[in-house]
Design brief:
- It is built from 2 helices and no strands.
- By secondary structure, it is an all-alpha fold.
- The chain has a domain of about 40 residues.
- The protein is elongated, with a radius of gyration of 27 Å.
């Protein structure tokens, strides 16, 4: 792989960065809100599953203890 000089490298980097489609502020806020909402739903789901498993295990152990 041939080495390019620093000036060409910077030109190539600028050309590639100009091709990037940056999200709008609204898109960033919407996706951030969706991530927080999904994280909260996941936390609630796993809390309920944990509560159910714990209650079931306590019930089973209570019958034998």
């Amino acid at each position: 792989m041939a080495m390019t000089n620093p000036f060409q490298f910077i030109q190539q980097v600028r050309a590639e960065v100009s091709k990037v489609v940056w999200p709008t502020r609204r898109e960033v806020l919407l996706t951030t809100a969706m991530v927080f909402a999904m994280a909260a739903l996941t936390a609630v789901f796993f809390s309920l599953v944990d509560l159910g498993i714990r209650s079931g295990l306590n019930a089973v152990l209570g019958m034998f203890g």
